[in-house]
Amino acid sequence: MSGRPLFAGAVDAEAQSLWLLTRRWIRFEDGELKRDPKAKEASRRNADLRRRKLAAAQRSSAVQ
Q1: Which of 9, 17, 43, 51 has its CA 20 to 30 A from that of 62?
Q2: DSSP assignment of 10-57, as one string?
Q3: Higher pLDDT, residue 62 or 3
């Protein structure tokens, strides 16, 4: 995780929670908010894409 806030505040979090629950991005477990596997997989894909873009940019700048 990046450490950036997910929501602008409590009102925003409440407003977003229904669709996030419906789309299975989050779940409540033992009274705690948890990321669902779907959200974890999206985070992994995004991190992989960022790594590949960085590697490509580094290769490109090394060639120049």
Answers
A1: 43
A2: HHHHHHHHHHHHHTTSEEEETTEEEE-HHHHHHHHHHHHHHHHHHHHH
A3: 62
